[in-house]
Amino acid sequence: MKNVVVVTGSTKRIGLAIADRLEQEGWQVARHGHTSGEFQADLARVPEIERLFREVYERYGRIDALVNNAARFTKFDPLEITEADWDHIHSVNLKAVFFCCQQAAKRMTEGGRIVNLSSLGGLRPWADHAHYCASKAGVIMLTKALAKAWAPKITVNSVAPGVIPFGSTDERVASLIRQVPAGRGGEGDEVARAVSFFLTAPDYITGQILSVAGGLGL
């Protein structure tokens, strides 16, 4: 029987690239989407998260790995961020990551692997994305805390993508790409390959953050 991995937010962009690569590598991929995909759930609501993992486990009888990819991204002057703006980001980017980890870990009876997608924005500050940066920095510390809490049974690591453009880019993205030492934006499959590494790496590797940013941030 194939190992089962849940990939949240896997119907487009980086999540789709991750799901496709893992499927090619032989995983049974449970593809989650908010309103599309094989398994649908609103990750801003904990009861929906609980239902999602219950349905995956009932269908496949096991959960071996989790990739927390689903996220929201907005831009605001910090002086203009409202409580609703803050909650909109943190409900999915941080709170949902924790509860997805919790639900998956409860079902990893033989051990497992968790990879949380953070961001270069969790490692370096972006002036107009303070709420987003805070959520992704939270993911990084959550990754380390859970790695310590669940060792040695479950490894928990994080991949932090940099500029991964899809389609046309605006001037902000173009400006960031000009700063990348690698000389280009990244590709979804490059992030997916980093995720795959953590899912197959020795279990002596846990609590680590791998930046996939072409050297941006050095």
Number of alpha- plus pi-helical segments: 6
Using the CA coordinates, give the radius of gyration. Answer: 17 Å
Q: Note the gap between the termini.
A: 42 Å
Give me the side-by-side strand order of the main sheet: 3-2-1-4-5-6-7
Q: How many individual β-strands?
A: 7
Structurally, how many domains make up the residues? 1
- Can you identify the CATH class? Alpha Beta
Which structural class should the secondary elements be placed in? Answer: alpha/beta
* Morphology: globular
The CATH architecture designation is 3-Layer(aba) Sandwich
Q: On the 0-100 scale, what is the average pLDDT?
A: 95
Note poorly predicted spans.
none
Topology as H/E string?
A: EHEEHEHEHEHHE
Binned strand content: 15-25%
Query: What composes the largest sheet?
Result: 7 strands, parallel
Describe the protein's topology.
Elements: E1 4-7, H1 13-24, E2 28-33, E3 39-40, H2 46-60, E4 65-68, H3 83-107, E5 112-117, H4 130-150, E6 154-161, H5 171-179, H6 188-200, E7 209-212
Parallel strand pairs: 1-2, 1-4, 2-3, 4-5, 5-6, 6-7
Helix pairs in contact: 1-6, 2-3, 3-4
Describe the structure.
With 218 residues, the chain is an alpha/beta fold. It has one domain: Rossmann fold (3-Layer(aba) Sandwich), CATH 3.40.50. 44% of the residues lie in helices and 16% in strands. The protein is built from six helices and seven strands. It has helices at residues 13-24, 46-60, 83-107, 130-150, 171-179, 188-200, and strands spanning 4-7, 28-33, 39-40, 65-68, 112-117, 154-161, 209-212. Strands 3-2-1-4-5-6-7 form a seven-stranded parallel β-sheet, sandwiched between helices. It starts with a strand and ends in a 6-residue tail after the last strand.
